[in-house]
Amino acid sequence: MVPAKKSIKVVLFDVGGPLDTETIMDREIDEQIKSSFRSRGVAVTDGEYNVVVAWAVEVFAPRTYDAIIWKIAGSDQGLADSVLAELYETVPDRNKARGDFELRDGIPELLEKLSRQGLLLGLAANQPSSTLNKLERVGILRYFEYREVSDSTGLYKPDPRLLLHSCEGLGVLPEEAIMVGDRIDNDIVPAKMLGMGAIRFVSGRHAAQRPRSWAEAPHADVHSVEELGRTIRRFVANPPDTPEDEAPE
To answer: Which of 54, 90, 111, 196 has the highest CB neighbour number within 10 Å of its CB?
Structure first.
């Protein structure tokens, strides 16, 4: 008996990257970290800083900025704690500088179209609960049926249970969902572990991140909202293979 073909019912979105470009935020964070170290007598050139950023991305550091600060601090816990504390203290300034949320052009229209097509939309993001207010302010929260984030569930990617929690909240199996995120480590890897379709929106700090094997490779890379919409439609019509199907003979 031929097993029934799975169908895609849900699209889960990370916030940072696909929805919020975070372009200004990343730049402001970089400048703040370098300024904090320099004010504490640690000389950090832009070139040296960029090398550390590339390292943090390459080694799949779950909390990228923690790893960057720790590496530059040379394992000096007191120095690292001081720089990290100042990074958090300056969050309001960065939010003001970027208008709280850098909504990607075309996202509202795409979300509306997906909703009209009968797909359920949900969040799967490492975010504070206050992010929901930002999504509401920019007019896109209404498209999401599932609105929990890491701050409300206590689960943080790359823990696949965060994605599983999103699927359960929408009443679907993981293989009936697509995950859209910008990181191989935090988004693509846990999605594929659960048998979900995995689309990477190539953007921002983790654009150069690479899978370490076929098991971590996204089912598709996209570089624009238009390409994302086409890819989701393609996956709905023809769901991507499961990890077992992709493994080499």
So the answer is: 196
